[in-house]
Model the fold of this input.
Amino acid sequence: MMEDRNQNTENRIQTSEKSLTSDLCALTSDLCALTSDLCALTSDICDLLSGVYVTASVLLEYLFCPRFIYFMNCLCIDQNEDKRYKVLKGREVHEGKERVNIDYLRKRIGCVDKEIGAYITSERYHIKGEVDEVLALSDGTMAPLDYKFAEYRDTVFRTHRYQSIFYALLIKENYGKEVRRGYICYVRSKNLLKEIPIKDADFIELQSMIAEIVGITQKCYYPKGTKFKAQCIDCCYRNICI
Done:
């Protein structure tokens, strides 16, 4: 009788061990599958991040207010920019920029060669855009030239300056040349040409802005609004911005 009880106990133990081993194998299999799914998800996220490119126009929206990126890229709320007069006229200038003759100005700044309408992409910095003109200068450096349908009002606007830095980074990355300055042609001031000095610190600051734009787009977090509250008065998102 005692031997039968011991045998039954041993059988139950063996059965429990087999069941536990089976459960452990199933758990290991599930964990492997979960790890595989996580790796696939990580890969998808990396692919998604690598596919995000910031344009100069998106940078300008960010400079106006970081929340523009949230409303445009996360909520997909358009601001109907096509209705704005200056935007339309600005596009007309860009479409006809090849016809603007400022060769005498190019010679004055030491331009020895130019490339018109250069579309450039940088996978490293996640930026892309069309530079109105890429200038090769006599000192071995290069520079972007951008046309603006605007009058020069005693100062270069912050948005114009960073757009020039944006194009400078594209040129530096793709042409392998130093870019120490950019140029803006103010069409409504009789093609007045202004020089924009560019330093390494400017490139670093720009890269920080680009990283935040990508972060807002991918994580869809609600960023802080502009510190220039006067801009909120005629903002197209003022009715939904909290």
In short: Residues 39-49 have pLDDT under 50 and may be disordered. The helical segments are 2-50, 56-64, 67-74, 85-95, 103-108, 158-175, 200-219.
